[in-house]
Amino acid sequence: MNSNPPHHSTAISGDLPIRSSKPMRPPTLAETENPPCEDAKPPTMSATIEEVPEDSPPKPNPRVGAPQTKLDDEVALRAGEIMASVIHKPRRRKPKSKRGLGKPTGFEEYYADGPMTPAEHEESRQTYDPSYPFEQRIQEALTRFQWKRRMENDRRAIFFKYLQYGGVDASQNYGTGVSPKELKQMSNDEARQARSQTMIPRDRQEQEVNFEEVARGFLSSYYANHYNPDSQESINIATSTIRNLLTYLLYHEVCPEYKDNILKARRICDIASVELWKNVQLVQDGPGKFNESCSMLFGGRYHGSGQDTNCWIPAQCCSDGNLTPDAARKVVKFAIAGTASHEQACRFQALVTKGNLSAKQILDIDGFEVTSINQPDDDIRDFHHEFAPDLPVVGKIKAKSFRNPAKPDIDMTPAERKSWQEGKAPKYDFEFFLEEELLQNCYPGLRITSDIWEINCGVYYFDEIISAYPSFHKVLANDLMMRWKTPREIVEEKPNILEMQVEDVPRLEADDDPEEDKKPDHITEAVKEALRATGLENEADEVDKE
């Protein structure tokens, strides 16, 4: 008899059996193909699999119509024992700083609050009854919003700064000292109040309510200046957080009297998510090769950089992106020849021939505001492709002068100030040359803070871009109130005459105190008494002398 176990093939061959309407009879052992030998050993398993115990549990009764064999029962029994022997290792807990990351926060792109039941709608209607004061309703809405949303550190910082900008006090944390165990023992209302971190001061309840103006001022002025975002993700965090709060107010009808104003504020958030990112890219890539070349040659931030050969012959631009004076002359010459008007190009050529090209800075303005954008046409593209294929194609933007209201007033005489207040301040219209790749980040209403220069041939250029503001730019006095602290009365304390007299008396050291020597030494007295008690009078006298 062969000692090796029989081999069972797992290949599928032959015709598939057709199931009849009658239940199939279980096949007998004789009818099965390749019946196992009684003396054959069970198939060997891997060394990592535990041995089957001798006392096997009773086998279940075969189902009617399901063919089974002795080998099938043994394999199934082994599989069950193997699965039962698997030991599940305990999962390693995450640190507290990383717990909850990746879970739904309520700020996802397509997140929406679920529909309310009739009972929830009735509760919401009673909570935000229009007969209640606006301050009470908005305070309750902010408390519930913080309870319903999970905010990470970056989003939480933006959220509370936005509330502070709008006049809400978010400096005190009313949930400090409340443990999770204590929160579980509280009701929902008590837990919401304990976790809330916002409060509307009473002295601000009479101020004007305007969601649109607050969104304009915060996103265009305070957020752009203080946070200095450098990625589209950080901008989306700020805009989506504010928009989510405004949507929550609309969904629960917290303040229906300000519905139109809230809708305008949400529109500002949508515009900000696009324009703020364009501003970041424009500041990083600006002012462009043409403006940088003019600044290097005529005056500005880049004036005097590089080695000047004072020659207007064509030169190749540096491969690393840096400009040399020779390459800067080439950039200026071909940009004016291809994009400027015929009059400007002729005057530029005449001044170059005479060597009288110069530029002067336009004073008393902070920058410019874009009014229109002119993309380069096919003629300009063909010109650059034929004569300057290594230079970018240049287009135009038209702009007007801009004065930043956030900056202090210009120093002027009383007569000039009166003239400016009457609307007679000088106004300028500009036409700048800008590369095509930078024109993609420009839009009407864009405000750029930069120094503006005029070449004596009638061409303008702007220097390094200091800052860029969106089309909805608004400066509010709320910027000055972000670090405001309520003043308190200073009470002048009267000096205590007795304390002054005590401080004037010089203190004696322990060695210099004359009374210290007169105090009895308790240890010495105890030693002398012990010596006298034992009859040693002479020794006691010696101790006294010492």
Automatic annotation (TrEMBL):
Spans annotated as Disordered: 1-69, 89-125, 501-523
Record field: compositional bias (Polar residues): 1-12
One Pfam family matching this protein: Arb1
GO aspect biological process, one term: regulatory ncRNA-mediated gene silencing
Coiled coil: none
Cellular component per GO, a single term: ARC complex
Record's compositionally biased regions (Basic residues): 89-101
Name under which the protein is recorded: Argonaute complex, subunit Arb1
